[in-house]
Amino acid sequence: MVLAEPSQKWQPAARGELRPEMGGGPWQLALAASIETSLRDTHYDIIVGGVATRIAEEWPLRPGAAVALAWRPRF
Q1: Please, what are the averages of pLDDT over each run of 10 residues along the chain (75 residues)?
Q2: pLDDT digit string (tens) for 21-37?
Q3: Which residues have C-beta within 8 Å of that of residue 37, sequence separation ≥ 6?
Q4: Looking at the domain assignment, is residue 57 inside a domain?
Q5: Cα distances (angstroms) measured from residue 47 to each of 27, 51, 61
Q6: Cα–Cα distance between 29 and 12 in angstroms, integer?
Q7: pTM exceeds cut of 0.90
Q8: Is-contact 35 18, C-beta < 8 A?
Q9: Domain span at residue 73?
Q10: Is there a smaller number of Cβ atoms within 10 Å at the N or the C end of the chain?
Q11: 75 in any annotated domain
């Protein structure tokens, strides 16, 4: 059993993000919610006895979240 060779070197994707930012002075806090999708079919195969078998696929839409704290001094 071996992993199949990659058929693509890069994978284009689309991502949307909602990111409210708040803060005062040099400090800024951001909360983000995002959704991402691949623009090509992405799956993972193994080769067993010369036959490729699909073992996993990506979710069509992948959710995400982030919290960021930034320091932006003003000189």
Answers
A1: 74 94 91 94 86 89 96 84
A2: 999 888 999 999 999 99
A3: 13, 14, 15, 60, 61, 62
A4: yes
A5: 52, 5, 27
A6: 29
A7: no
A8: no
A9: 29-75
A10: C
A11: yes
